[in-house]
């Protein structure tokens, strides 16, 4: 199924990626006031990115999955090089777990999320 607003969804996905890069490399990222809050943040961010990518490329899920795992590892290495952030294997594990969770969720009814929204907007605004 081809998305009517593919370019918009692709742009929003790029904004999501850029936000993760910024949050990963900024000196003072927002904190999540929960036990292991930063790990939950990693998990959520990488789950969202993978699910988003699966919506855009449902027949090539392995490409964004591999890319996101590499990106998560690279960002951890870059954090360790900044002098104000630290490298953590636990963050890499949370990233990879998020990618796996997003992949798994893309095989549930959530896989219809973006395509359904796209179809609703296309009908609403008269595009097909």
Describe the 3D structure:
This protein has 128 residues and is an all-alpha fold. The protein is 70% helix and 0% strand. The protein contains five helices and no strands. It has helices spanning 6-25, 37-56, 62-82, 89-105, 113-124. The model has no long low-confidence stretch (mean pLDDT 94).
Write a brief caption for the model.
With 128 residues, this protein is mostly helical. It is built from 5 helices and no strands.
Average pLDDT? 94
Give the overall shape, derived from the CA principal axes.
elongated
Treating each run of at least 4 consecutive H or I residues as one helix, how many helices? 5
Q: Structural class of the helix and strand makeup? A: mainly alpha
The H-and-E topology, N to C, reads as: HHHHH
Major β-sheet profile: none
Task: Describe the structure using short key phrases.
mainly alpha, about 130 residues
Secondary structure layout plus pairing:
Layout: H1 6-25, H2 37-56, H3 62-82, H4 89-105, H5 113-124
Helix pairs in contact: 1-2, 2-3, 2-4, 3-4
């Amino acid at each position: 199924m081809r998305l009517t607003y593919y370019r918009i969804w692709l742009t929003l996905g790029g904004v999501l990626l850029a936000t993760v890069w910024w949050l990963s490399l900024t000196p003072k990222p927002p904190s999540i006031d929960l036990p292991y809050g930063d790990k939950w943040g990693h998990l959520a961010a990488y789950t969202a990115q993978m699910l988003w990518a699966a919506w855009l490329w449902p027949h090539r899920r392995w490409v964004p999955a591999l890319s996101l795992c590499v990106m998560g590892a690279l960002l951890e290495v870059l954090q360790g090089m900044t002098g104000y952030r630290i490298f953590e294997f636990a963050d890499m594990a949370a990233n990879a777990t998020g990618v796996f969770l997003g992949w798994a969720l893309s095989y549930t009814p959530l896989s219809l999320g973006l395509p359904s929204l796209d179809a609703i907007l296309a009908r609403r605004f008269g595009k097909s």
